[in-house]
Amino acid sequence: MSEWSPIAAVHDCPPGSVVERIVGGRVVALANVDGVWHAIDGLCPHQGGPLGRGRLCGSVVTCPWHGWQFDVASGRHGLSPTVRQECFPVREEGGRVFVRIGADGGPTPPSAGGGPPA
Prior knowledge:
The protein is mostly beta strands and 118 residues long. It is 0% helix and 40% strand.
């Protein structure tokens, strides 16, 4: 079973921004899209660029190395439907943001982000 891990304080990632964090040995890009939280695998599949250091425009993050773009809500690449970043569930509680990374290391289905777990 996976556990919720703290990833940031709410003020670390204001609306319209993305940050890079390490959680459970994984690089994670945490994005705040108008107050809704999303977390995706933070390593761009192209050449390992840091998505959490990219630019966020709406729900699309652009890798700072070569411009690959991903929707942080779905993990989908902007041009290729076969390229997809792993998404992680996110919740906010008490001024902190938490993410859940699969304990078995296997893929976690893409999340709509935001809200607490069901």
